[in-house]
Backbone:
């Protein structure tokens, strides 16, 4: 790497160091991010909840880190073989290393969409068992849940084990909330807990209203996604077109030598940054708001307070 590119990187790092010093002294921020760092334990609780929502509750953070590091090394080596230099391989390695996080995010979105589609039917079945068939609220919940979608059954199986061991319905619902980590599940559990503790015929009206609200939310999200279908397909060209042109450039003349030069390295780095920025910006514009968890169980609330 020549002096020009080295000086550019040193200036960039120096500027960011000044930013970190200023924000630490004026605002009291800690860490190396662009904003204040959350408390470590609270951030760990959020990470655990995120992995649970993605169906990766058995994956430890250290295992995720190992996969990320391996992908970084492989991608950086391939980019060095294609482009040479140092900056581009590091950028390519960072982009590919983020694949596990994007995969977890996709799994989380898929599971939450499945839960949104399943809960209206499950609520109606719970109402049928508890009101029409006259079963107890815990029995109705566990009977319906164990016949629900395969992705949700492990949570209901864990809740059933807790119920059989303790017959404590509140504790059983805490296990279910923790395993599902879903806003609708929190609302259903809170409604059923009140119905179980207070009793009466109000459970039928509450479950009907909750099911109608979930159906309305589900239909609204489906309509919004249908309108975004064309835009989501066009978003793929943000990655496909520039990468295709880059590979074509390798086969023209001394393409690899041009990429290995200082100007080529800076150009490719800027191109990668623009691609990533456009992809993230487009995803932010297309993102629909997620419901926030309100009725946390005792275990979840303790993890958040920590």
Residues:
């Amino acid at each position: 790497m020549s002096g020009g590119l080295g000086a550019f990187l040193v200036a960039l790092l120096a500027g960011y160091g000044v930013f970190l010093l200023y924000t630490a002294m004026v605002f009291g921020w800690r860490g190396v991010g662009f904003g204040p760092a959350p408390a470590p334990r609270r951030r760990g609780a959020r990470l655990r909840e995120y992995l649970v929502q993605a169906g990766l509750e058995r994956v430890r953070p250290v295992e995720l880190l190992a996969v990320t590091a391996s992908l970084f090394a492989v991608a950086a080596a391939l980019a060095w073989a294609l482009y040479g230099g140092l900056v581009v391989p590091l950028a390519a390695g960072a982009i590919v290393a983020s694949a596990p996080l994007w995969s977890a995010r996709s799994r989380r979105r898929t599971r939450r969409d499945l839960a949104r589609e399943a809960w209206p039917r499950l609520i109606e079945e719970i109402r049928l068992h508890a009101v029409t068939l006259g079963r107890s609220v815990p029995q109705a919940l566990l009977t319906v849940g164990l016949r629900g979608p395969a992705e949700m059954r492990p949570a209901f199986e864990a809740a059933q084990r807790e119920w059989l061991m303790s017959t404590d319905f509140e504790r059983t619902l805490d296990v279910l909330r923790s395993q599902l980590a879903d806003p609708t599940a929190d609302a259903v559990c809170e409604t059923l807990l009140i119905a179980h503790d207070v009793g009466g015929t109000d459970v039928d009206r509450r479950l009907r209203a909750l099911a109608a609200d979930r159906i309305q939310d589900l239909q609204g999200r489906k309509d919004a996604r249908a309108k975004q279908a064309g835009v989501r397909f066009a978003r793929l060209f943000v990655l496909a077109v520039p990468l295709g042109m880059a590979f074509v450039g390798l086969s023209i003349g001394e393409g690899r030598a041009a990429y290995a030069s200082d100007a080529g390295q800076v150009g490719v780095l800027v191109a990668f940054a623009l691609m990533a920025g456009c992809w993230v910006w487009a995803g932010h514009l297309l993102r629909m708001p997620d419901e926030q968890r309100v009725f946390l169980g005792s275990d979840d609330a303790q993890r958040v307070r920590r």
Notes: The two ends are 46 Å apart (CA to CA). The CA atoms of residues 201 and 215 lie 23 Å apart. Residues 114-221 form one domain. The chain is about 80% helix and 0% strand.
